[in-house]
Design a protein that fits this description.
heterotetramer; A: alpha+beta; Ubiquitin-like (UB roll); five-stranded mixed beta sheet; 5 strands; 27% strand; globular; C: alpha+beta; Aldehyde Oxidoreductase, domain 3; four-stranded mixed beta sheet; four-stranded antiparallel beta sheet
Amino acid sequence: MKCQILYFARMREVFATPAEEVALPDSVRTIADLLNWLRARGEPWCSELAAGKTFRVALNQEMASLDQILTDAAEVAIFPPVTGG
Amino acid sequence: MKCQILYFARMREVFATPAEEVALPDSVRTIADLLNWLRARGEPWCSELAAGKTFRVALNQEMASLDQILTDAAEVAIFPPVTGG
Amino acid sequence: MIRVQQEDFDVAEELRQMRAANPAIGALVSFVGLVRDLNEGNAISCMMLEHYPGMTEKSLLQIVVAAQQRWPLLAVRVVHRIGPLVPCDQIVLVAVACAHRGDAFAACEFIMDYLKTKAPFWKKEQTPAGSHWVDARETDGRAAARWEN
Amino acid sequence: MIRVQQEDFDVAEELRQMRAANPAIGALVSFVGLVRDLNEGNAISCMMLEHYPGMTEKSLLQIVVAAQQRWPLLAVRVVHRIGPLVPCDQIVLVAVACAHRGDAFAACEFIMDYLKTKAPFWKKEQTPAGSHWVDARETDGRAAARWEN
């Protein structure tokens, strides 16, 4: 399955990219699986996406929970809590 | 004691005057006394200032209660509940 | 800070003066009241706004001071029109500037709620059936009462 | 109705378009958020506002629709700026027109509270000590939570 991952704000800086295209193994089915797959890359994903860290995930431009299922060609975004207004 | 009485809105129309200067007998000491003195004139004071009617009284440009004491040369205003804004 | 006038007012100019390059202001909340063409089922062709000169300004000042004691206000503006008005005309502006939005929203609504129930203004509406003085609304009394604790 | 843009906005022009001679409007409440020169003790020389194109507009629309379902809104305007901003610059406008003021105040504050906690914008502040991403405020979470019943 292919997936587009977008990073914003601090995440974009720490991962040094605004976006990446990833090809995921069949074992990656949910948002939680995707986060584990990213953490397995080592630093900086490992620390930035650690369980105690505060970040949000959106799936196809809607706020998503960890158990949501990824769809092929999904747009996933990972970002800090929002601070607009 | 002399007193200036101002009327606004519906009161001004019913009493057909925006203001009058009155010379009050010594027995008129409070706002309540003044209202009784006005009611004693007969109509339209009698009906418009009847106990069941809703109106407000200000003494020297501050909202006043019935038991407040009149002072010489006081400015008393009688008007309906306000409807600005 | 407080004005009662027959002329119309320019909201943009009032807000501009309030901001006046004060970089401590983070939130600016404004309320504009407008004449509607329908009030409680009556078609309104025009209205006349009467007030009690002297007491009006005093009463508005007391309301603004009460708001200043309750919230940290950086700027306040209250402009109320009197005289003849027609639908779509501006009646009143209340604008409040604070560091934070919660204070600005609360203070602006507080001032409007008290203005509606304490400031000596009266509206007379002209309708096809003739003219009549507007009755005070019970909901306005309740709106003001909720600030009393 | 909803815009995300780098350019500044003209509050007077936005309000004028909302009113557009609609005589059913009795109350117009607007909120303008401004860049302060001090935030949580840090002197701010400038800030950068980043957003998530696509999701931002979608998220703002959802917030406005939720407000429309809750209050009878006659007009709404949400304008949010992105890019570099300096103290005293306008960041955001939320304006709501209704027949009555209670609805307009509530809807305007509701939209701001949700915008602050749901719309994907992020601020990076530049201070004498360097630049840093602004942390989400717990008070904003509480402000949004009070509408949830």
